[in-house]
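Morning!

As promised:
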Amino acid sequence: MQVASSLREALITGGKTVKDVSHDISRHVENKPTKLWWAAMAVSVAVMAYGFYCLCYLLWEGVGVWGLNKTVGWAWDITNFVWWVGIGHAGTLISAILLLFRQRWRMSINRAAEAMTIFAVICAATFPFAHMGRLWLGFYWVFPLPNTWGSLWANFNSPLLWDVFAISTYFTVSLVFWYMGLIPDFAVIRDRAVVQGAKIRAQVYNALSFGWQGGAKTWMRYESVALILAGLSTPLVLSVHTIVSMDFATSVIPGWHTTIFPPYFVAGAIFSGFAMVLTLLLITRKVFKLEDYITIYHIELMNIIIIITGSIVGIAYITELFIAWYSGVEYEGYAFYNRVSGPFAWSYWSMMTCNVISPQLFWIKKIRTSLVATFVLSIIVNIGMWFERFVIIVTSLHRDYIPSSWTMFSPTMYDIGEYLFTFGFFFTAFLLFAKFFPVINMAEVKSIVKVSSLEKKENASH
Amino acid sequence: MDADKHFIVGIFDDEEVLLKGIGKIRGNGVKIHDVYSPFPVHGIDDALSIKRSRLPIAAFLFGMTGTSLALLMQIWMLGYDWPMIIGGKNHASLPPFIPVTFELTVLLAALGMVGTFFIASDMKPYKWPRQFDLRSTDDKHVMAIDLAINSGKTKDELRSLLRESGASEVNEKSFE
């Protein structure tokens, strides 16, 4: 017996019935794409094509075409890698951790957020592979494959290798989790295609749905799979950015060698991920007219998560500064003095403004329930989080122990080009997803229509 | 009459009516073939006396396999097959092996459990399911009752029983 609470806010508005949910979500898959979709697709593919040229040139010429020099062996490549992996974290947080906490507001947004996770992880993975230079040998360096040098196995003591396993497991498990969620919804599109007489579409979506029928026993097993996948993904997602942070924290570079890194990176990842979810969903909601499913209330809740994680990130920045002084380690102290007042101070203060100050605006209800303010701030947060990784990587590397090897970093067109490639890929993939896959989890939303729609609430309160 | 071919199909609009209906129908000694729903209905497993899924056990066993394989692989590769001194540590020291072991545990548990789910539920991409009513993925709950198994009752008795139990529509469906 499900009870409609008159206290909790409605998650679905507009008097939607179960049938409306099928119709509102499936019709985007069934209809021809709009002109706007084609225009967006053209831009994304063009950007991706230019970026692909830069990537090919890099593989042909070598990593020297990037702006890396002297002690700056990592710069835009690893900045972009960490940034994209971080963005992915929100998808898993929404789909797994909020499932374990029984947060029903996750249901309207988990599908798109998980898609974002998968595409973001693919974007992230291109950078470590590209920075190996000889991509075709990369597999021998990172996977424990038998080889002609012994076999000389991969070094399992290295955090870089842990990262390979963390990212590939994270990608696979997220993909499986996302796909499992899609199965019943593919069956909805299949059955609608049968009714509409679209034979090919029916066949394709039946194959995608693995012949889903939705019997009572299958649903029970399905829910048990979803719960365990959520239970597995929760420590997994926390491990991924922890291990990414260990790439830095287990080294002896001042500014990297700190124990605060794992929780600080995880909080930052969720912070930037939610910002990207908001950027994407605000557009998707508008274009697909999903205002009744992704309501202002959903957006407000996501903004609250941004305040929390943004504040954690702010505390981490201040703690780093405090410990750099309080520890009395002069190298650490200099690294932070250089960040705050050195030649890259502009990037440090951009990071501070975008990540620590700007999300505090969400304490004001008017701002966190405003679509325009949320959209602008979500982009500012993502810029800030990019600068965070840039600050950590470049400012620590460009001042070596010997002043004679001090240097500066500036990106070349190939650094920028490869970053553009990932943007092109990300938006191309997201547009394809939005056209061919149901963007909202219909089965889950249907299960709450009765108890969480606005009309039911009104009836319950009388 | 052959089993698993001829069915009486009751359509239910509401999950609460459905749950009460299942109780009533089963109380009359009728065996229900299955109930197809557009979303998971909580309490339906108790109403239909479906046993708890053993998939968690499968996930645990696959996870343990992952743990063992990961540890064996790392200890064998770095401890025995080509021992090297890295950072002055033991050849096979456990702490640095934990992250990879954890990741492989999760990977095998997830993939193994999902694979088991597909096999147990007999789901494959090239299989077209038997559809009792196309609306079962849209907004209706569809109850199928096998006529051959319930030969103690006539079709008309089953029809009126479904109606009394709250079905908004009752149809017949036969498969070749």
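Residues 18-143+153-451 of chain A form a domain with the Formate dehydrogenase/DMSO reductase fold fold (CATH 1.20.1630.10).

Hope this helps with the figure draft.
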